[in-house]
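A reminder from the course coordinator: this example appears on the midterm review sheet, so study it carefully.

Given structure:
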């Protein structure tokens, strides 16, 4: 594998098709050399199978970090015996950030016990639009200060449990009335409104050292009238890096979502995202497409469409996420204390809202 092709793989996180690394999948991953793999329900059959899968992934020569999108509520990738945590909104309704920390800690402990390195949570979006079809109860609150407080407690819990958190979806997906999985939303917010609402939780998370942030496939005309945030240098370099001072890893949302793929092919979208300041391009559902994307990135590097130095810096930022030593799995699922925590949240949320 030549140097540029290897570098291309180091800025890709890919999905895989099934619950085991069969010969074809293993060969494809070795050829791709990704720095990350994301898991979904299609990849999970049992606790022991999942532990075996993550161990096998960690042994791939490129040593990919293993991630999952496991927020609680309707975005839950792992069924029983993993604890089925409530959505963020229910945790926020308790009024107790200590419960958010406890959920993060419990969730992180469970994920780390099966070899998962990164959780794409917490949601830092503010639930500011009741017509939003995709955020809603995934947000902790419709008040930005509460989102910041609860999300920071949650991410600190994940870290204490042994898993890296990733805040999302920068610079905010809460005030859209379209779902970026199916179309490209536009958020007509003034810069002042963005500063006081959408950006507040992100600034707070950056201040406490959140290691990763995920971009939103949303156009914000106040920031960039032409490109969605994922493909906007104004948003990712000028705002996020320079103005807000974020020094961690910027990961795209899935480039296969229709907000991007209806307008750009996945390989072209990946090149545009990297040009704009994304470090890690996420391709969730097509390992062959990930390999085509790596070839396109390598070609872009060879022809000067992409500069090599920023991608080297991106790969180094991703490399710094790696834990210094393997974790030891030491818990048995289900965990009764975690089920009791769920009961405490339900009671506290009901009491706070006067239900029951």
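Designed residues:
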């Amino acid at each position: 594998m030549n140097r540029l092709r290897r570098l291309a793989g180091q800025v890709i996180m890919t999905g895989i098709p099934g619950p085991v690394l069969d010969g074809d999948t293993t060969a494809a991953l070795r050829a791709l050399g990704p720095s990350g793999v994301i898991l979904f329900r299609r990849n999970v059959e049992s606790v022991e199978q999942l532990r075996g899968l993550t161990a096998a992934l960690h042994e791939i020569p490129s040593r990919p970090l293993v991630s999952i999108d496991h927020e609680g509520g309707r975005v839950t990738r792992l069924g029983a015996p993993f604890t089925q945590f409530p959505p963020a909104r229910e945790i926020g309704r308790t009024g107790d950030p200590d419960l958010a920390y406890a959920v993060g800690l419990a969730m992180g402990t469970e994920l780390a016990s099966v070899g998962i390195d990164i959780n794409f949570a917490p949601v830092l979006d503010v639930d500011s639009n009741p017509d939003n079809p995709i955020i809603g109860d995934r947000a902790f609150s419709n008040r930005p200060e509460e989102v910041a407080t609860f999300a920071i407690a949650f991410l600190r819990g994940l870290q204490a449990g042994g898993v890296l958190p990733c805040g999302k979806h920068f610079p905010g997906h809460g005030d859209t009335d379209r779902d970026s999985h199916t179309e490209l939303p536009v958020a007509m917010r003034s810069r002042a409104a963005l500063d006081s609402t959408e950006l507040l939780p992100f600034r707070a998370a950056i201040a406490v050292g959140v290691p990763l942030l995920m971009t939103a496939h949303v156009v914000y005309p106040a920031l960039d009238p032409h490109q969605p945030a994922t493909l906007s240098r104004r948003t990712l370099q000028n705002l996020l890096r320079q103005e807000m001072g974020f020094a961690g890893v910027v990961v795209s949302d899935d480039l296969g979502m229709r907000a991007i793929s209806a307008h750009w092919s996945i390989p072209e979208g990946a090149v545009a995202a990297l040009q704009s300041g994304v470090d890690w391009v996420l391709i969730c559902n097509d390992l062959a497409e990930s390999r085509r994307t790596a070839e396109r990135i390598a070609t872009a590097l060879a022809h000067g469409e992409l500069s090599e130095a920023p991608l080297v810096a991106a790969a180094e930022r991703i490399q710094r996420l790696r834990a210094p030593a393997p974790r030891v799995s030491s818990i048995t699922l289900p965990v009764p204390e975690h089920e009791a925590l769920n009961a405490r949240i339900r009671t506290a949320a009901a009491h706070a809202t006067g239900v029951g």
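The chain is about 45% helix and 10% strand. The CA atoms of residues 206 and 245 lie 8 Å apart.
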